């Protein structure tokens, strides 16, 4: 089967097989990479560059649950506005504040790793719950869960920064 005969897309589902996604990404990049078109016409070179760029963007979007979920909401005409806490309840915001304080006060890599593991667990739980909501077509629920995922993903980034300070 030639590359042209293969489907270009992965399944339209939140819980996709990331190994299959990566395999398909690598196949497309091998065939579209601009180096393969260096002896071709300018039009073919430009096409290769634009398609390779689109494949990179699609892979970057689809490989992580948060960006994949946000994209799926966007396809349904929904988005999560930046900088708004209107969907977050006071208890959730208090929990986030406590996590951030604990991270600020963490004095050792072990303390920071504990926060990292807790955050990873929360993100895994939110990913499962988002998948269930999207499978049921409960877009508002998925939107609220993805908003929470954004907050926890921000904490995850702060944890990485904190850990790099210990090195």
UniProtKB/TrEMBL annotation:
<dbReference type="GO" id="GO:0005739">
    <property type="term" value="C:mitochondrion"/>
</dbReference>
<dbReference type="GO" id="GO:0044571">
    <property type="term" value="P:[2Fe-2S] cluster assembly"/>
</dbReference>
<keyword id="KW-0963">Cytoplasm</keyword>
<feature type="domain" description="Co-chaperone HscB C-terminal oligomerisation">
    <location>
        <begin position="89"/>
        <end position="160"/>
    </location>
</feature>
<dbReference type="InterPro" id="IPR004640">
    <property type="entry name" value="HscB"/>
</dbReference>
<dbReference type="InterPro" id="IPR009073">
    <property type="entry name" value="HscB_oligo_C"/>
</dbReference>
<dbReference type="InterPro" id="IPR001623">
    <property type="entry name" value="DnaJ_domain"/>
</dbReference>
<keyword id="KW-0143">Chaperone</keyword>
<dbReference type="GO" id="GO:0001671">
    <property type="term" value="F:ATPase activator activity"/>
</dbReference>
<protein>
    <submittedName>
        <fullName>HscB mitochondrial iron-sulfur cluster cochaperone</fullName>
    </submittedName>
</protein>
<dbReference type="Pfam" id="PF07743">
    <property type="entry name" value="HSCB_C"/>
</dbReference>
<comment type="similarity">
    <text>Belongs to the HscB family.</text>
</comment>
<keyword id="KW-0496">Mitochondrion</keyword>
<dbReference type="GO" id="GO:0051087">
    <property type="term" value="F:protein-folding chaperone binding"/>
</dbReference>
<dbReference type="GO" id="GO:0051259">
    <property type="term" value="P:protein complex oligomerization"/>
</dbReference>
<dbReference type="InterPro" id="IPR036869">
    <property type="entry name" value="J_dom_sf"/>
</dbReference>
<dbReference type="InterPro" id="IPR036386">
    <property type="entry name" value="HscB_C_sf"/>
</dbReference>
